[in-house]
Amino acid sequence: MATRQYATFEVEGALFGIGVEHVQEVLSFSEYTTVPLAPATIGGLFNLRGQVIAAVDLRVRLGLPRHAMDGPVMNVILRGDEEPVSLLVDRIGEVIELDADQFEPPPDTLAGPARELVLGTFKVGDRLMLALDVDAAVDTNAPTAA
Amino acid sequence: MEDFGEIVQEFLVESHENLDQLDSDLVTLERDPQSRELLSSIFRTIHTIKGTSGFLAFGRLETLAHAGESLLSRLRDGVQPVTQETISTLLAMLDGVRALLATIEETGAEGDVPVEEIIARVNRQIAAAKPAAAKPAAAKPSAGKASRGKAVKTSRKAVKTTAPAETAPAEASAAAPHDAAEPDARRPIGELLVEGGGAVDTDVNWALQKQNAGDERPLGSILLDEGKTNTGAVNEALAAQGRRAVADSSIRVDVDLLDALMNLVGELVLVRNQLVRAADEADDPVIVRTTQRLNLITSELQEGIMKTRMQPIEQLWMKLPRVVRDLSNACGKQVKVRMVGAETELDRSLLEAVKDPLTHLVRNAVDHGIEDLSQRAAAGKPAEGVLTLRAYHESGHVTVEVTDDGSGINVEKVRAKAVERGVVGADEAARMEPREVMMQVFQPGFSTADQVTNVSGRGVGMDVVKTNIERIGGAIDVESTLGEGTTWRLTIPLTLAIIQALTIESGGERYVVPQVAVHELVYIDGAQTRIEYVSGAPVYRLRGKLLPLVRLDTALGRPTSSGDEGVYIVVLQGDGRRFGVVVDRVLNTEEVVVKALTARFKELGVYAGATILGDGKVALILDVASLARRSRLSPASERAVEAEEPATPVGGAVDRLLITTVGARRVAIPLDTVTRLEEFAADKLEWVGNREVVQYRGRILPLVRLSALLGVGMAEQGEAVSAVVYTQAGRSVALVVDTIVDIVESSADERGELDDDGLIGSTVVAQRVTELLDVRRAILAADPHFYTESDSALVEA
């Protein structure tokens, strides 16, 4: 059976997952530079070993209040098409291996901005993991519900 | 097969270089049809291309080059004269070769690029000159085949030897002299040896065969090793080959490798900046010394790496005579291209970025700038127009000028056009300075041409030129004298990767402004220097002229972080206008490594990039042109400003400034009032009351430490202190600085003149913001009676 590894993380208590092949690294960082006039989904810029990385606040993408950015925030750094981009999340979870046949389309009850970002769901123990659409999640030019 | 691909790659690179040279050579030949050297050189290059393409089995390319070679051989042998038509045909042949090479590069094969039409055209040229022309043309191929093997070998040498010539300052029409030196440079060593009597030709042929059989030693070495010649003869022959030594001492390096090195050096500069900061705090002499050395080495390394990426601008210019020729022929004009400073070097990535804007300016100058023959005759000008390309280095930048001696741009016409297009109101337009009016030509869709031609205005307008130049951190400017001509001036940074920048703070965040745009800094204390409001718009009275202001916090859509007191104005020049940006604090100037900003922020337009500061935090680089547009006043306040504006005298006097350091700041002191520069031993300094003094020439000299006066930290007390001594009417005072750096010349209108009431302006000297000392105030701090005493003394006496 085809299995796939997912890196998981939490935002506002909900469990999300991204295929590990998209993930470059995960790290906590606290020094961000705000970008005035930028879309609200941009949490800030930071220096990753000499590279300037834009951090997209997943909370804002999901229509939630933004991260305070006054202390350490967890970054899931994704290999972008042209440059890495970071997703700001609440908490990092484990890397889990899931069978492709456990995949289910997003439930009809899932509404709001999250609906656009979720490809489908997996059952992980007694929880539901939402598989995130990477491209949609980091699309900072999309209109936000927030 | 791998090897074969490499050969093709090398062939492509060399041929591309050769083609550019050929373009320029052919245009030169048209002006100087008698130049046999030039003809021979062109012939040889085509011959090489033909030979190599045959060797690599590019049949169509070989046929095309062969046709060109046939025509060239007739020109060379004087069978047929050089005419405008033959040159056009040969240029068309080159274009065909170029198209074929492009296809080969893309697909690895020749594809179906149509060459038959060009070949037919070449043959028509041959036939037109002499109907029975078929014979000499047909006789050529065998000779071509015979020398094919050699052609492959010499092609590399031929390309390399042109490189030093390119760096020579050259006018296009003067290209012939350096070509004259080339026949020797391109001649095989064996031939030279035989000619000089150093070897016999049978031995040379034998050695050549060895080489062909796979012996990798140079020909000279083979002959030497076998005792067929002597060292002296080989050296002589090598010397005769002239530039060979240069060719052998240079190598081709992959641009990606250079880019990677450049990035690494960028990182190193960052680490250096961080370490310098840490060492300042560490207070450990060993670390400080080591850091200083690292600092020096880093700077040298950075310079060295940057040099490897530098290329003479001639690389770009070489293509332009051809552009001018084709265009002037199409417009029925005569235009000569002059080049000054072709050896001026700039970073290759910038060279690429400047290519299109420059080409556009040149096309525009030929099409709209230079008049047609009848107009020139009527104006009493020579029939042939002159287009001058000029490049030079100026204070860390490269300036490239495109000048024509045409009819010039009519400022009033531009003014009228701007009003007609509704860009500015009639009142406003009438008040605009000529310089500002001229900037209107960079507005999208602007044209003063009475008739639109199909030559310029093909997609790119002056606005695009301007955008492209600004994108690389450059600026464009135009100057024109009606009836005499127009000069377009591009100011381009030397390199894209590392810039001098001023770091400022607004709303608790740091931002970076490219130093090139910074003119001066003004501190607003709210009393002597104040922000004023005209129709609600903030302005500052800078030497009597009202300067429109932008509050950085407001411009960035952030809450107002400070009032009108205790803030700084950074006076900037951008988008053709001068304006001030109000910031909370001015921090420092340093070299920063420019990082491209993610595409997400491109449309914001406010940022030109990002950088990483000494402490590792990311800072945004502000886009000066975009801020300038925000500083545009409303028409109402513009009028109000105008009404208040007194006439401003234009100063142009050149002053000499003494540059010193005080703490981390650079302070300039006008030199004309300075009496002497002195060093005093630190243990000679004494205190009298609360005043520091030193015995000097039998008198007591009061000292004032500028560090105390300017409120900056005092540098480590050394064994001696540097002082600037003023003497007037028998009284002397000394101003103590940390170090004396330099004496520079600065024109008075480039900087703030100091008001007597104590305004401290600043200027940019050698890329660094330098504060101008209010000498009077400093002297009064040392000796309150310095100026008055002499007068009162007279009264009392």
TrEMBL record, chain A:
Lineage top rank: taxon: Bacteria
Chain ranges of the CheW-like domain: 3-143
Pfam short name (any one): CheW
SUPFAM superfamilies assigned: CheW-like
InterPro entries for the chain: CheW, CheW-like_dom_sf, CheW-lke_dom
Name the record gives this protein: Chemotaxis protein CheW
The organism of origin for this protein: Pilimelia columellifera subsp. columellifera
Automatic annotation (TrEMBL), chain B:
Localization per Swiss-Prot or TrEMBL: Cell membrane
Any Pfam family: H-kinase_dim
UniProt keyword terms in alphabetical order: Kinase, Phosphoprotein, Transferase, Two-component regulatory system
Boundaries of every Histidine kinase domain copy: 252-496
Superkingdom per UniProt: Bacteria
List of residues that carry Phosphohistidine: H47
Residue spans of biased composition, Low complexity class: 131-146, 161-178
GO MF, any single term: kinase activity
Gene3D superfamilies on file: CheA-289, Domain 4, Histidine kinase CheA-like, homodimeric domain, Histidine kinase-like ATPase, C-terminal domain, HPT domain, SH3 Domains
The protein's enzyme class: transferase
Main localization, broad class: membrane
Catalytic activity: ATP + protein L-histidine = ADP + protein N-phospho-L-histidine
Residue stretches making up the HPt domain: 1-104
UniProt domain CheW-like: residue ranges: 498-633, 654-784
E.C. number: 2.7.13.3
Region of interest: Disordered: 131-183
Biased composition regions of type Basic residues, renumbered to the chain: 147-159
PANTHER family assigned to the protein according to its UniProt record, in alphabetical order: CHEMOTAXIS PROTEIN CHEA, SENSOR HISTIDINE KINASE CHEA
The name this protein goes by in its record: histidine kinase
Annotated organism of origin: Pilimelia columellifera subsp. columellifera
